């Protein structure tokens, strides 16, 4: 009993200290969503390889809110790609996107948000307000949506000037 109270008192005095750094914590709020996200990332990676066989694909394995999941480099030009997984087909508001959008807005980079399902209208408005024509949201749930993903990435690649 005293040990528990002492631990609570120390926690309140010192603040809550995380035992594991953010980079080692699971990617999502639940293991089911985390497994879905990992599987979806792998499927998107395969789609990139299928659509752009000569592209270089860099995958960020560390969990951060201000860096995109992928950097896709096609013909010497790069596009950041953020994947989002929804477990239900409802609206996707993009509530987790602002730190990433702020960083990309400062850096002047292009972004494609790839969503597995749902209505992306609110997220499209959010991305457009932050990045303008340098960002877009596309729903991709398999090879039947390859044309939409290809068009979104190629549109952003055409805008870019090679440095």
Tell me the span between the first and last alpha carbons. 65 Å
Radius of gyration: 19 Å
What's the assembly state of these chains? Answer: single chain
Report the biggest beta sheet as strand number plus sense, adding barrel if it closes.
Answer: 5 strands, mixed
- Going by helix content, strand content and strand pairing, the class is alpha/beta
State the total count of DSSP E strands: 5
Give helix and strand order, one letter per element, not per position: HHEEEHEHEH
Q: Which geometry do the CA atoms define?
A: globular
Strand numbers in spatial order across the main sheet: 1-2-3-4-5
Task: Indicate the low-confidence ranges by residue numbers.
Answer: 17-28
The proportion of residues in beta strands is 15-25%
Protein name: Restriction endonuclease
Description of the structure:
Strand 2 and strand 3 form a beta hairpin. The protein starts with a helix and ends with a helix. The relative contact order is 0.13. Helix 3 runs parallel beside helix 4. A 5-stranded mixed sheet has the order 1-2-3-4-5, sandwiched between helices. It has about 160 residues and is α/β, with parallel strands linked by helices. It is built from 5 helices and 5 strands. It has a single domain (about 30-160), classed as Trna Endonuclease, Chain: A, domain 1 (3-Layer(aba) Sandwich). The chain has helices at about 1-15, 30-50, 100-105, 120-130, 145-160; strands at about 55-60, 70-75, 75-85, 110-115, 135-140. This is Restriction endonuclease.
